[in-house]
Amino acid sequence: MEPTSQQLAAQGVTRPIRVMMVSTTYPAAVDDWRGRFIFDMTAALARRTDVQLRLWAPPGPLPTGVISVATDKEREWLCALQENGGAAQAYRRGGLTRISIAFRLMYFLRQAYLRNADVDLFHVNWLQNVVPLFGTRIPVLATCLGTDLALMARRSVALLVGVTLRQRRFVVAPNANWMCEPLLKSMGANTPVTPIYFGVDERWYNLAATRRASTPRKWLVVSRVTRKKLGRLLEWGRHFTTHEGDELHLLGPMQEQVALPGWINYHGPTNPDELSRVWFPAATALVTLSNHSEGLPQVILEAMAAGIPVIASRIPGHEAAISGSGGGWLVDSEQQLIEAIATLRIPARNAETGRRAHRFMRELAGSWDDCAGRFVQSYKQLLKQ
User: How far apart are CA 51 and CA 47, in angstroms?
Assistant: First the structure.
């Protein structure tokens, strides 16, 4: 068997770290919105010379140097899973469908892990996806992204994940600080938890210099359409259109049959190119009143990087981006929402809030290359232990 990175290092020899990344979502094309952050993460790691990256994910465009390690059968199944809303949507449906998909996913992952046992470590997105590693010893960096945090509240899931991880060197890497406490509560106080914030593509930062909130004002909601993701929007959202000409635009896939009122302009799914070219340059604010289990929504990071103020419900995932930044408003009530709208209708206040959002996001998240550096630092620490 080929020596590991740490064995070579002991001999004074260095080579790139061999990493297998796992994800159950991935964009099928360059203009696909699904799993875009996984593509950006993968591309940033692929640009580094100290990493050799393999990817197990649904089929899609691969950055130069990345090797797909899913079989044709696995790619076909992952593609069908993603087309039906992904693993999280399947779990929410419950019943035999959830059980069948969970077992099928665990089986395919087990086979993939065993085929790639020569890597130095596994980079696993979504904590539950580490379970098929049971009985192996290869180090793991496991991200926690929000939906899996809700799963970890189930004692049986937390036990399976914890037992599997403790058979090796590992680190749990949530993409926001606020997730550390609930993870330690569910997995134990001695669990190595290191938050690693995702990056933001430079295209969004570059928009900040040219953004001009349009008249009439355009309030944007970019979200999958489910009742939890929309939250209080259907009750309170009409306040965005009380001024003549103001418009509320909703962009995202319809994943539940939700009756939308006439004051919402619904446009269906979108993609990063359309957002950066059409919607973000003229946006008055990004709006999310979700009560869904969120980690740190990437669309909020991108909007703030683009200098767009954010109005958001007060849940931990939103507070992590907005609290203390001066780049938006957290609202608990309809009256607070009315006050936020009134403030952001003032051009000078809107512009200053956007500038604060942009500066804060540069410091908090930086670029995807910055994020890749944070991941590689954790890889190296794991391999040194």
Answer: 8
305/360 Cα distance (integer angstroms): 8
Question: Going by CATH, does the domain composed of 202-364 fall within 3.40.50.2000?
Answer: yes
Q: What is the pLDDT of residue 241?
A: 94
* pTM for this predicted structure: 0.90
Return the pLDDT at 86.
73
Asked whether the domain spanning 202-364 has the same topology as the one spanning 5-199+367-384, the reply is: yes
Over the chain (385 residues), the average pLDDT of each successive run of 10 is 54 79 95 92 97 98 97 96 76 67 95 98 97 97 90 92 97 95 95 96 94 85 94 96 93 93 95 94 96 86 97 93 92 96 95 96 96 98 91
CA neighbor of 289 nearest in space, from 279, 300, 276? 300
Q: H or E element: which one contains 331?
A: strand 328-331
Domain ranges of the chain: 5-199+367-384, 202-364
Strand partners of residue 336: none
Count other Cβ atoms within 10 Å, centred on residue 238. Answer: 14
User: Which residues are registered as beta bridge partners of 140?
Assistant: 122, 170
Can you read off the two tokens belonging to residue 345? 């209708």
Q: For residue 225, what are the β-bridge partners? A: 254
C-beta pairs of 319-325 under 8 Å, 24+ apart in sequence: 319/178, 320/176, 320/177, 320/178, 320/296, 321/296, 321/297, 321/361, 321/364, 325/356, 325/357, 325/360, 325/361, 325/364
- Tell me the CATH architecture of domain 5-199+367-384: 3-Layer(aba) Sandwich (3.40)
Nearest to 146 by CA among 34, 288, 298: 298
